[in-house]
Design goal:
alpha+beta; Aminopeptidase; about 30% helix; acyltransferase; single chain; Acyl_CoA_acyltransferase; transferase; about 260 residues; acyltransferase activity, transferring groups other than amino-acyl groups; 7 helices
């Protein structure tokens, strides 16, 4: 995996996008240690909801003690400690986890789009639903994820405080085809949970439902959109670039091996 992050990130923008990202996908437990945020959610395995997130590159006081303390919180959940490395993480902390044998994984690109001036394609429009249970069922089906996660996913979506649009495309015979969640936080619109059922990919459904969400956000005065995509997801990156999204920064995770 490539560990390298962009040479120079716009740190104020990174801080703002990290903050809206936390509000768009809220963890059930958040504890601060200095500028570090320790996020834990017992019922959901998402790394966004379960990770140590450093938010100040200069905050590296007592890193060994603090990292061990934060890691113990994960042990209580019987899961390995996970650290999120963004441009806001101290190099001293990253050197420490490397020395301790932590493993990097899931490099992700955060992309933004000038929504006010974006030329959105003329696709079929879809209106958001207010039925969270139905949306969760559709998202789990298109993602092909166990329905056992329904209570946890529903809890996360219910906890989102900014206005949210839940978009779905369904077929009366075969069921859910695509989903996307759009969270509007003042002038920023976050795109989450974009999913197309595997059998219907490359048919334009992703573009159709994503464009609907972006139009909805723009009508509600959002000026910029943001999203997160794994570096290996080339089809999705191509789609986002087509709509005008560009890379803002990257992050990756580091995992502590419970057996060490």
């Amino acid at each position: 995996m490539t560990e390298a992050l962009p040479k120079k990130a716009n740190l104020p923008l990174v801080r703002r996008l990290e903050a809206v990202g936390f509000r768009a996908w809220p963890a059930s437990s958040v504890v601060y240690d200095g500028s570090w945020q320790v996020r834990l959610t017992a019922g959901h395995p998402s790394n966004r909801l379960n990770s140590i997130v450093p938010l100040d590159p200069s905050d590296h006081r007592d890193v060994e003690i603090r990292l061990a303390k934060a890691s113990r919180k994960f042990e209580a959940y019987a899961r390995p400690a996970v650290l999120r490395q963004t441009p806001l993480a101290s190099p001293v902390l990253i050197d420490l986890v490397k020395a301790e044998g932590w493993t990097p994984f899931d490099e992700t690109i955060v992309m933004t789009c000038d929504l006010a001036n974006a030329d959105l394609p003329d696709t079929l429009d879809h209106l958001p639903t207010h039925d969270i249970s139905r949306f969760v069922d559709a998202n789990l089906a298109t993602d092909q994820v166990s329905t056992k996660l329904k209570p946890a996913l529903a809890e996360v979506i219910n906890a989102i405080k900014p206005p949210s649009g839940l978009f779905m495309v369904e077929d009366p015979q075969t069921g859910p085809l695509a989903t996307v969640l759009c969270v509007q936080d003042n002038d920023l619109a976050g795109i989450m949970s974009l999913s197309v059922t595997p059998a219907r990919r490359r048919e334009g459904l992703g573009l159709e439902i994503l464009t609907s969400a972006l139009r909805w956000a723009r009508m509600r005065s959002a000026r910029s959109a943001w999203l997160q995509v794994k570096t290996g997801n080339v089809p999705a990156i191509t789609l986002y670039e087509r709509l005008g999204f560009v890379e803002a920064y990257r992050y990756s995770y580091w995992r502590r091996d419970l057996n060490r």
